[in-house]
Description:
By secondary structure, this protein is α/β, with parallel strands linked by helices. The protein has 14 helices and 17 strands. It has 2 domains: 13-186, 3-Layer(aba) Sandwich (Rossmann fold), CATH 3.40.50; 192-400, Spore Coat Polysaccharide Biosynthesis Protein SpsA, Chain A, CATH 3.90.550.
Amino acid sequence: MRHSYQSSECSFSDIYREALAEAADGARFVQVGSLLGRSAASLAVEIRRSNKRIELYCVETSSGTPGTARRDQVVQAHGESIRDIFDRTIRRGEVAGVDNVIRADSVAAAAKFPDGSLDFVFIDADRGYEALRRDIAAWAPKVRADGVLAGHGHSAEYPGVIRGVTEYLSRYDAERTIRGTCWWYRKPSMNFTVAVTTAPREVTYLESTLDDIARGTSVVALPHPVRVCVSADAAGVAALKRDRTGPPSVLFEAAAPESWELVRGAGPHRRCCANTWQALAGAPPGCDVLLLQDDIELADAWPLHLRYRLRLARQHYGDRFILALYASYGFGGEHLAVYPTESFYGNQAVYFPAAVAAEYARCLWEHVLDYRLADDMVLKEYARHSRMPLLVSLPNLAQHLGRLSTGLGQFHVSSTYRRSL
């Protein structure tokens, strides 16, 4: 099928062709921002040429971006509405029926698709910074693992696009590439499980922590659900679930019976030990563990920055290290620093390679049985005796929000934490 005048090749047809070349039958594509329909018609023609069964959805408000010169020029030049122009372009391009047109705001349209259900999403709507960040946040969760999120307008003419893509998708991630004025991001899969430890209490930050996890993991794919390990029995878990309203979908786990019998009448420190043990011991076999307490705030795009830091850590230490995402006081250096074992405090957010997680869980269980130290002190002693490198991310990727947080005997706000990286 040839390109007609109305459906002539657009400036990013090569991006479309590359996406189609790797797409399987039954793939689902979305173009966000179709305006006059020319690039949509071009993509539809390429789909026909591929002889593959591809579903194509076009998201367009049919009003353009209000107040922009481009919109005003289009309406003035053609003397008709943007919707009429779009429909005429698709009709004359002989691709009507290929496109499923969703006439809605970008964020509202994204809500129509399940997470992980799309193979390719191309964003070419409002090119302002806030609008692009909103679009990426809405559509990134909808892209499957190894799928592609891409867009147009990465040029000096649109500094908001450059800033938004760089900030949200992280300058450290090798999966992000720039091709002319287009950006292209392949959604990676990170094989670690996230476990959040919590206890029913009057003040809980669990909602905020889970929202941060959902926001961050929208730009990566995690093969395992988030586990919330509750230091309580089934009744306590039910109460916590009733009070919770935010995303994401998680698994709530009551305390393991063998530990609950030991700690249900004990103080909070021993219960924390048991809770941490359960979070590590219950992880999928052979899977790394990111262990989070329920009172932290995570930096923007934290999984991608974590991915980069893990790459550096493994280059130097293989799979024998512990990485803290949070430190209560400042370190010099860039990306990673060695945490002096004797000064360690910061177990609110800690990453364990799989073998280390299993080994430390066994060590921690001995302390649950015969309680002597709080779990952060157990971790410090474990690292010291096993000569395990303790590392910390720079800048910090997490910040402890607890009002009664004490590090080294004092309340601390980490000097190395930044929400936006």
